[in-house]
Design goal:
By secondary structure, the chain is an all-alpha fold. It is 83% helix and 0% strand. The radius of gyration is 17 Å and the shape is elongated. The two termini are 30 Å apart. 25% of the residues are buried.
């Protein structure tokens, strides 16, 4: 059995889990913002956001990075412009993850200052980054 194929499969599965959270958490923020602080719905959203971040998103991000770095080293020796661009986009996605994690903490203490419109617009960013990453990996344009 080829270990790299197993790691690639693990990389894809962990990426799917991470992206599911990256696309869902900002949507929860939209609903949370619209519910308003102190409401029973807002308290439910706080629990959902924390569990999504800690139970799915962060472990999946770590697994995605670990498997991805292994593959970048073992299959590509960290060579290729497309790979460098992909890594840059994954760094950007990780930065967005950090921003969302900080936002979970703000929501938990009723300190969100952003509008539901802001969260709706931010909700599109992970999808755009993901499209660019997939194109880089499949097409390898440079």
């Amino acid at each position: 059995m080829d270990l790299d194929l197993w790691i690639k499969a693990f990389h894809i599965v962990s990426l799917i889990a991470w992206m599911a959270g990256m696309l869902y958490l900002p949507r929860l923020f939209v609903y949370h913002t619209e519910a308003g602080p102190g409401t029973p719905q807002a308290e439910t959203f706080k629990v959902m956001e924390k569990r999504l971040l800690r139970g799915i998103m962060t472990p999946a991000m770590i697994a995605t990075w670990a498997a991805g770095l292994w593959l970048a080293w073992s299959m590509y020796a960290f060579q290729g412009g497309w790979l460098h661009a992909k890594i840059a986009l994954v760094v950007a996605m990780s930065g967005l993850h950090g921003y969302l994690a900080a936002s979970v903490k703000k929501f938990a203490t009723d300190r969100n200052t952003k509008s539901s419109r802001f969260w709706r617009m931010l909700n599109e960013v992970p999808a755009l980054i993901l499209v660019a990453i997939v194109i880089l990996v499949v097409v390898k344009p440079f």
